[in-house]
Write a structure and sequence with these properties.
The protein is mainly beta and 872 residues long. The protein has 13 helices and 42 strands. The strands form 2 sheets. The protein has a 40-stranded mixed β-sheet that branches. A two-stranded antiparallel sheet has the order 41-42.
């Protein structure tokens, strides 16, 4: 027991003494060793290596010595093109928080420094290769000065831990970013001959090869073996394992930058592909699960530089793959194809081509075949072939559109598109639909209902042929409950439907059993924000030029109804030109032509010239809501309207007319008409029996009219009605302000026995002889709405008197000229008019006035002056 304790004490003393000695030695020589280590590293790398501090430990890894370096900085080697990596930190090759170098202690004491292991932790590693193949990590071998002892750099073990990696190779436009969690590198340098092996596990955050980008973080295991000498870099069988995909790299990169590299992968599991796509695509494809194995090979040969590209040959194939939809019973089965890409004999975009051949698949209950090719990437020529029978309901189910649509029937597809889609920076697959076609699509009782767009198509049947233009003959369908047939010849239809900036041209013939515009007014809001009565503005397309002959059996819009609509419509950007139009409406016929133009605010202006015949006035007022006024309404009118009208009518984007800005002119004729219970007319009850004013009837009424600046103008017109014979003119605003001037014969009033005993001057105000011995009175009717005022029209009577005096003056000139030869230069009337008989009205309480002719004196003819100044 005592012996054991003694041995333990002795051992402890020896170990303690040894540790103290080692610690003292490390303090004594650490500056020398640290300088030798940094000097050796600087000699073997064509760059500068520095450390903020270093510490030698002979105890930590005894019997090995370890030099600990803090905040290590390794600058990039010289000679590579810095300008090719703009925006990146090209000055630094490595920046690490800590590093350590292991040496053999015995050799170090003897003055020989052999590096057994280098460990780099927590840093950033930048590896750059320019387009000429020059790098920022050049290796060389140099000998240390003999007086400082010999140092040998044998990089058999270089450990990397938690190191951020940025790899950028401009030769192939490859960029890799990630974190090296654990890596082990082995390198043996013999002059310019370097053997290198590497095995590391890393997380790749970005993988970009030219325009192909993978951003989601993926795990990769790299195993690289290469030999670099004066002839170039030669790769042994190097592998990269990504998501259980094994990519094998073989070949070499010659010193003159000639590439001969092959990358192959025979076990790419396509089930992982959706997870590698950008998030916006992976979310959209989250319901779809692909299964199958893809084979891939990429061969690169030739020199790579700023002025030339190597030759690329890429081949890939997929056999009997499956795409399953987790939310649907349908799937895509037996999906197979072969694909190739090459940059051609010229190694340029002009000679490049991409092809998909032997495509076949079964979707639902239908089989599909096809092919695709694209040549000359500068001015591409494309060809697409696709054949199969599409069942719309299966497509709706597979795309998870059941909440949005219902479908039925089948569509036979025989598609072939070829041609040049044009020069552009980016291409889409749909670009093929903007090219020449030799295709055929047959609809077999197709049904499609889009609930969020209020589109309901039923029993669509017919054939579309695409051969330079789109031709169909008697294509039939029911659209929103309206039976429509269509025949025509159109150009640019596929490209127009695909949304390309092309103009749809052509001619067509359309017939429909009925047409209701409200059924085509959709909403701009999201489906969740829709209200039943919310309609979106109508828009005349800016990319359509069509000439359409149309026939509609019945048209219904709000209260307006028409039958037998026929015409010709010319559709131009933002304009509808109805070159001819005829219809039966309002119990009559309407024909004419018109033009509708859409304004930038989506409102419309319509201009038209129309001829109407036998239109029911009462029904017209009722249909058009009394034309936006309530002065005279449908219940106040009867009769049949004929005539012509030219008008300009603005309407809003929902086709609501703006009556107040309408302008129109025309001529009308109303036959068998009546004015019933019209309150403003009842204001004449002071002159005409009220019972007769309640229902005024007339055989025929003709006149011109004008509508401008919110005012309806009525020129002078004669009215012969059941109540009285009148002469009327006036104006009426759409704000229900009006002013009418009425001229009535006094004999008409007296014959109605409306007044019995009053003197004419007292009862009828201004009285004027009309020159025919008939006395007239002038009335003015003005007001607003139901507030009607009837007064004597002094101004009209004065104007009439002036007109009569003017006529008498002309008569006087004629008489004097005939009797005395004066006014010879006057162009007045030469022939004397036959004298008119005189009338006198007797007011003696009789119910009617008697008209008595006064005989002129036989012995002397009464002259004009005698008549003018004759005493009454």
């Amino acid at each position: 027991m005592k012996l054991s304790i003694s041995l333990l004490k002795i051992t402890s003393i020896i170990i303690g003494t040894l540790l103290v000695i080692l610690f003292i030695i490390s303090l004594a020589i650490q500056n020398k060793v640290g300088a030798i280590v940094l000097n050796t590293l600087n000699l073997n790398f064509d760059t500068k290596i520095s450390s903020e501090s270093y510490r030698l430990s002979l105890i930590k890894k005894f019997p090995k010595a370890t030099i600990e370096l803090r905040n290590v900085l390794v600058l990039s080697s010289h000679g590579f093109d810095l300008s090719a990596f703009e925006g990146l930190n090209t000055d630094t090759l490595l920046a690490a928080r800590s590093a350590s170098v292991d040496l053999r202690t015995i050799d170090m004491i003897r003055g020989n420094y052999t590096f057994t292991k280098i460990t780099i932790r927590s840093g950033q590693l930048y590896l750059f290769t320019d387009s000429s193949g020059r790098t920022n990590y050049e290796f060389t071998e140099r000998k240390s000065p003999g007086k400082e002892g010999s140092a040998r750099l044998n990089l058999n073990r270089i450990s990397l831990q938690d190191l951020n990696l940025e790899y950028n190779d401009k030769r192939v436009d490859l960029n890799i970013r990630g974190i090296v969690r654990d890596g082990m590198l082995k390198s043996r340098i013999r002059g310019n001959n370097i053997d290198f092996e590497g095995d590391m596990k890393m997380f790749i955050r970005l993988f970009r090869l030219d325009d192909f980008i993978i951003r989601p973080e993926i795990t990769a295991d790299l195993n690289v073996g290469l030999n670099q000498n004066e002839k170039g870099t030669f790769f042994k069988k190097s592998t990269m394992k990504i998501e259980n995909w094994d990519f094998v790299l073989t070949g070499f990169v010659a010193a003159d930058n000639y590439l001969d590299l092959t990358v192959k992968a025979d076990n790419i599991d396509i089930s992982r592909i959706p997870y590698l796509l950008p998030s916006k695509y992976s979310k959209a494809l989250s319901a779809y699960h692909p299964e199958g194995t893809l084979k891939f090979s990429w061969i690169t040969k030739g020199k790579s530089g700023s002025s030339q590209n190597p030759h690329y040959d890429i081949a890939f194939s997929l056999k009997d793959a499956l795409i399953d939809n987790r939310k649907s019973r349908l799937n895509v089965r037996n999906l197979s194809f072969n694909g190739t890409y090459t940059n051609g004999s010229g190694n340029s975009p002009e000679t490049s081509s991409f092809k998909i051949s032997d495509f076949s698949s079964r979707f639902g209950s239908s089989d599909y075949i096809g092919s695709f090719s694209l040549t000359n990437f500068k001015d591409p020529f494309t060809e697409l072939v696709f054949r199969g029978k599409l069942l719309p309901q299966e497509l709706v189910d597979f795309l998870n559109m059941n909440k949005l649509a219902e479908a039925g029937g089948s569509i036979d597809l025989d598609l072939k598109f070829s041609g040049k889609p044009g020069k552009k920076d980016n291409f889409r697959f749909t670009d093929v639909f903007n090219m020449a076609s030799d295709s055929r699509i047959v609809f077999n009782s197709v049904n499609l209902k889009l609930s969020n767009r209020e589109i309901d198509i039923k029993n669509a049947a017919g054939t579309f042929r695409f051969d330079g233009s789109t031709i169909t003959d008697n294509f039939r369908l029911s659209l929103n409950g309206q039976d429509i047939s269509f025949s025509g010849k159109l150009t640019n239809l596929p490209g127009w439907l695909a949304g390309f900036p092309v103009t749809l041209n052509g001619t067509a013939s359309v017939s429909a059993s009925s047409f209701r515009p409200e059924r085509f007014m959709d909403t701009d809001k999201d489906p969740g924000d829709r209200t039943e009565n919310t309609k979106a503005p109508l828009t005349i397309p800016a990319d359509v030029m069509l000439d359409i002959d149309f026939r509609v059996d019945t048209l219904s819009y709000k209260l307006f109804k028409a039958r037998n609509i026929n015409g010709n419509l010319s559709v131009r950007p933002g304009m509808l030109n109805f070159r001819s139009l005829s219809m039966d409406s309002q119990e009559g016929k309407v024909s004419g032509n018109g033009l509708v133009v859409q304004n930038p605010d989506k409102s419309f202006v319509g201009r038209g010239s129309f001829v109407v015949s036998g239109v029911d006035v009462k029904q017209s007022f009722s249909t058009f809501n009394n034309f936006g006024q309530d002065f005279i309404k449908a219940e106040n009118l009867e009769g049949l309207l004929s005539g012509n009208i030219t008008l300009v009518l603005p309407v809003d984007s929902l086709l609501n007319p703006n009556i107040h800005t309408m302008a129109a002119e025309g001529r009308f004729s109303i036959s068998n008409g009546a004015l019933v219970n019209f309150d403003p007319v009842k204001a004449l009850s002071s002159f005409i029996e009220l019972s007769e004013l309640q229902n005024i009837r007339f055989d025929k009424l003709e006149n011109d009219f004008f509508i401008r600046d919110n005012v309806f103008f009525l020129p002078q017109m004669e009215i012969r009605s059941s109540a009285a014979d009148l002469s009327v003119n006036g104006e009426h605003t759409f704000d229900n302000k009006y002013e009418y001037h009425v001229k009535m014969l006094l004999s008409e009033i007296l014959s109605k026995k409306s007044r019995k005993t009053r003197k004419p001057a007292e009862n009828f105000g201004e009285i004027q002889d009309d020159g025919l011995g008939r006395t007239s009175i002038f009335l003015r009717i003005d007001g607003k709405g139901d507030n009607v005022k009837v007064s004597y029209d002094m101004k009209a009577a004065g104007n009439q008197l002036k007109e009569n005096l003017k006529k008498e003056k002309e008569t006087l000139k004629t008489i004097i000229k005939e009797e005395y030869g004066l006014y010879r230069k006057d162009s007045g009337q030469v022939n004397r008019k036959e004298s008119r008989p005189r009338f006198r009205i007797s007011w003696e309480g009789t119910e009617t006035a008697e008209e008595q002719e006064e005989e002129p004196p036989a012995e002397k003819k009464e002259g004009f002056l005698d008549r003018l100044f004759k005493k009454k």
